[in-house]
Amino acid sequence: MQENQISPSEWEIMRVVWTNHPISSREINDILKEKKEWKLTTTKTLIGRLVKKGMLSTEKQGRKFEYSPLVTEKESIDESIDDLLDQMCNTKVGRSIETILEKRTLSKTELEQLSELIKKKKETAPNKIYCTCTPGQCGCVV
Q1: 22 upstream amide cis, omega within 30 of 0
Q2: Which SUPFAM superfamilies match (predicted)?
Q3: Dihedral of the CA atoms 47, 52, 53, 54 (nearest 10)?
């Protein structure tokens, strides 16, 4: 499980920083002001939490601070996905992936890449996935 899980509001900040670093708190706030009605103090509080969690670095530039990511967007997404998968029964993972594919629009290129990955994974896939949950945590019959 990720030690420093980030909240949905912190994700909003990180997405701006990943795209626009180095960036000041005011610039972050300006970018998010149409989506979020945060005061600058709210943005600064969230940035402070992200710095404390080791997600952002701080560098003083004159009278202001600028922030840069210490982790990549891909690393953060991968860790969040791993955390989610670690919380569910192994037998439910395939259905969860189906749900993602049903609910999100993907390009033909992305679908082709997924198709190739599935083809590769099939070569070494087991015939059956077994439940490894603690008894009473899921409805699988062991």
Answers
A1: yes
A2: Winged helix' DNA-binding domain
A3: 90
The band of 139, judged by pLDDT with boundaries at 50, 70 and 90, is confident
Q: Which residues have C-beta within 8 Å of that of residue 32, sequence separation ≥ 6?
A: 12, 13, 16, 38, 43
**Residue 30's pLDDT band (cuts 50, 70, 90):** very high
Three-class secondary structure of residue 49 per DSSP: helix
pLDDT digits (tens, 9 = 90+) for 97-111: 999 999 999 999 999
Nearest CA to 4 among 93, 66, 70? 70
DSSP category for residue 23? E
3-state secondary structure of 72: coil
In terms of CATH architecture, what is 8-69?
Answer: Orthogonal Bundle (1.10)
pTM, whole model, 2 decimals? 0.84
pLDDT-based confidence at residue 142 (cuts at 50, 70, 90): low
Q: For the packed helices 25-32 and 8-20, what is the interaxial angle rounded to 10 degrees?
A: 110
Measured CA to CA, the distance from residue 139 to residue 84 in angstroms comes to 18
Question: Would you call 131 helix, strand, or coil by DSSP?
Answer: coil
